[in-house]
Amino acid sequence: MSIAYLQCIEDACRRRQDPKKDVNACSFCGGLVEVKYDFGAVDAERLRHEWHQRRLSGEPIDRSGVWRFRELIPFVELGDRIVSLSEGSTPLVGTRRAGWWAGPVHLTIKHQGNNPTGSFKDLGMTACITRADARGVRMVACASTGNTSSSMAAYASRAGMKALLFVPYKQISAAKLAQALDFGALVVEVGDTFDEAFRLLREIAAEMGLYLVNSINPFSIEGQKTIVAEMLEQRAWRPPDYIVVPGGNLGNSSAIGKGLRELKELGFIEKVPRVVVVQAAGANPFYQTVSAGSEELLAVDDPHTEATAIRIGRPANWKKARRVLEWTHGFCECVTDEEIFEAKALLAEDGVGCEPASAATVAGVRKLVRAGKIERHADIVCVLTGNQLKDTEYIMHHRSEGRRSRRRLRVEPDLEALRKALDKAFAVPV
Ligand code: F0G
Questions:
Q1: How many CB atoms lie within 10 A of CB 123?
Q2: Is residue 198, in this structure, part of any structural domain at all?
Q3: Which residues contact 177 (CB under 8 A, 6 or more apart)?
Q4: CB 147 less than 6 A from any atom of ligand 1
Q5: Which percentage of the chain shows pLDDT scores above 90?
Q6: Number of structural domains, the chain?
Q7: Residue 387: what are its φ and ψ, rounded to 5°?
Q8: How far apart are CA 129 and CA 82, in angstroms?
Q9: Are residues 252 and 344 in the same domain?
Q10: Average of pLDDT values for 65-76?
Q11: Could you tell me the distance, in angstroms and rounded to a whole number, from the CA of residue 309 to the centre of ligand 1?
Q12: What is the mean pLDDT of residues 346-356?
């Protein structure tokens, strides 16, 4: 018997769902649902030691940075197959220039771009697909701004399932689209925004009985929350002052908050870091909602930002993320595309590459320090959600062909021409 169950998050409802069915919405009130556990007594010291020991193990389940912490996600039954690609175990790296620029603050990067398909989505996907597999699902589906889709395509292949994905037409990066195609997913380009594609998918999913693996799937949140255990372990269980994440559909911030809350309740940590969500200024529904203290989501109908991963106007998980800000005394900020570009360039000066959405975190820290909301020299972990190579069009546009192109020369294959070109290039400080 599993100790896991699904429960509605709405205070007025909080009802348990039918254990025989996996649902993404409450069968009584339609609210979001979450996975809950009867954890019983937990010996935090013993578990910390065991998790640490597993790092030396060669077993696939222990090589995974998600399943190494399996006591935190005990929804798997004995005999269930774990569908893993050795996700997680991502680096925590310090910064010099970026931290100075953003504060000065003590800025550390948790780089989720180092996952099998290049984004944090792999943590949620191993959990979701493992669950789907145990339930006998043969086809999974999602709508995506590109990362969930590449991750779903990979893990579905691994499990021998079919993958159906909806993406907004011409609105996701070529690399992300290529990944999904390479893993053999059926790609449907539909609508102009993620929100439209997602709405259509949800409607058709109900008709067709599709198993969705977006972040509204509560098991995806379970996989993603393990980032917190891994990060704290890497820091010898010393929590930072702030954990900063970019906000799109708000699954990641919800997961991080849930992870922190459970680790606190189970006695792993005393202090809870404040969770900060950073959105793009042109796609900032959560920022607007939180700032206005609104009980309804203030959706953005025409979201726009070059950080296409977070170009979302109606985040499905906003109520979960709002709880996280309450629990952790966190807040939400938004930054312009120009600020995102600057932050990405500063990270690059530290040798850290990422996709634009991820750099929003560092831009957000700078803005918040300047506004006096984050104190100078604070201890901050920014979660970089996606790999640098996820969006090379952005880089080529800004760094090679656009107005900021400074480091690309085309030279005739002739020594004299080369000398001249290099002299000229080095004469100008860059
Ligand atoms: N960063 C990246 C690189 C993302 O791909 C996403 C979301 C986010 C941040 C925001 O995370 O949605 O949990 O708030 N990408 C989703 C996708 C929407 O379809 O790949 P979130």
A1: 29
A2: no
A3: 146, 167, 187
A4: yes
A5: 93
A6: 2
A7: -70, 150
A8: 9
A9: yes
A10: 97
A11: 5
A12: 97
Check whether residue 15 and residue 96 sit in a common domain: no
Query: CA 301 to CA 96: how far, in whole Å?
Result: 39
CB 105 within 8 A of CB 365: yes
The dihedral built from the CA positions of residue 32, 35, 39 and 45, taken in this order, carries a sign that is negative
Shared-domain flag, residues 241 and 322 = yes
Average pLDDT value for residue range 51-79: 96
387 ligand 1 Cβ < 6 A: no
Residue nearest atom 11 of ligand 1, based on CA coordinates: 248
Q: Is 410 a domain residue?
A: no
How far is ligand 1, taken at its centre, from the CA of residue 318, in Å?
13
pTM listed for this prediction: 0.97
Residue 163 Cβ inside 6 Å of ligand 1? The answer reads no
pLDDT at residue 68, rounded to an integer = 98
* Separation CA 26–CA 10 (nearest Å): 9
Residue 135: per-residue pLDDT: 94
Asked if residue 267 and residue 375 are part of one domain, the reply reads: yes
Structure confidence by residue, pLDDT tens digits, 206-258: 899 899 999 999 999 999 999 999 999 999 999 999 999 999 999 999 999 99
Do 4 and 104 lie in one domain? The reply is no
417 Cβ neighbours under 8 A, 6+ residues apart: 411
Q: Is residue 421 part of a domain?
A: no
Whether residue 304 is found in the same domain as residue 239: yes
Query: How far apart, in whole angstroms, are the C-alpha atoms of residue 189 and residue 145?
Result: 11
Residues 226 and 298 in one domain: yes
Angstrom distance (rounded) from CA 140 to CA 129: 8
Q: How far is the CA of 312 from the centre of ligand 1 (A)?
A: 9
Structural domain includes residue 351 = yes
Question: What domain range is 3 assigned to?
Answer: 1-38
